Predict the structure.
Amino acid sequence: MLAVRARALFDGVGPGLVERPTVLIEHGRIAAVQPGGTPVIGAEVLDVGAATLLPGFIDTHTHLAFDASTDVVGRLTDADDDTLLDRIRAAAQASLAAGVTTVRDLGDRGYLTLRLRTETAQDPAAGPHIVASGPPLTTTRGHCWFLGGRAEGVDGVRAAVRERAERGVDVVKVMVTGGDLTPGSDPYSVQYRRDELHAIVDEAHHHGLPVTAHAHAVTGIREAVTTGFDTIEHCFFLTETGVDFDRRVIEEMARRGVTASLTLGALPGGPPPPPHIARRIPSLVTGLATLREAGVTMALGSDSGIFPVKAHGSYPHGITAMTDFGFTPAQALRAATSTAAMICGLGGRKGRIAAGHDADLIAVGGDPLTNAAAVHDVVAVLRGGVRVG
Ligand SMILES: [Zn+2]
């Protein structure tokens, strides 16, 4: 038995902090959360002093196979599988050190991330708990085609989903629109026909798998929501010239329970956002408030790996970015923990400090509900009850 004591605790839901808690951990799980004064007999004690305990962060969108260099596509294409797997391991370690105890990987090559999933399931110190999609479904020369997930036509996409089910993926990822990373693909136009999207969703749900859509643009979001996708990645309602938080699409998301996996945050010190992005920020703040008021469930992903400022381990910057985008610190912390667990299919098991949940918890210096920047000062990480790093 391990007893973790701290000045305060945010349980992943809130609204406030629990003062002076003791978290009892046994066999990798949280056995109980008790008032701090309770005597603990026969337990090893870890006292993190003035720090605040939080559930470990859950990154709903990462790419462990991308190395956050200035040429991620070239570096990935040139690497053989062993080299790539070593990079995936290093990326996982960097995430864990930043307090990310679960990641949902939404695009690798050759299902390599599933190998690391086995490794981190056996050894919590090897990296975060992993939820993975394998290579995303895409079209000929479509977004991220170089990851090897090309699938087209109704029969083709159904076969691709079946292959993923056989391989044991946790989620099916579809490049519904193009993306900036892939020369020649268009982030504002839909890559798939509606019958193909319907077939993907139908086949995935038949195999008990959730299905998530890459879509920055309102065109792709609309198509994914109406064809029955469970989650929208990015979900910024972009148009070629600005943003269009289409009320009808937002209401449909709320009605159907379609969730959003926002990809926010970057390391400080990088180049300022290009003018076409900077110009959109005020309308993004208003638009995300519209999503929130409509009751759309939103969790936080990083998209780490794709650029140097999106290094693995940059996840906490997304939490502070959420507060810049109009969320309260408590809303941002929920998006990074309990809500993220739900989107990853791990509700009831991760994302909360509560009896029966996995003992994935972290300690940060200070009070993150008063000052979200406290999340950058991670002083302890426990994964499956094991202190790591
Ligand atoms: Zn991504």
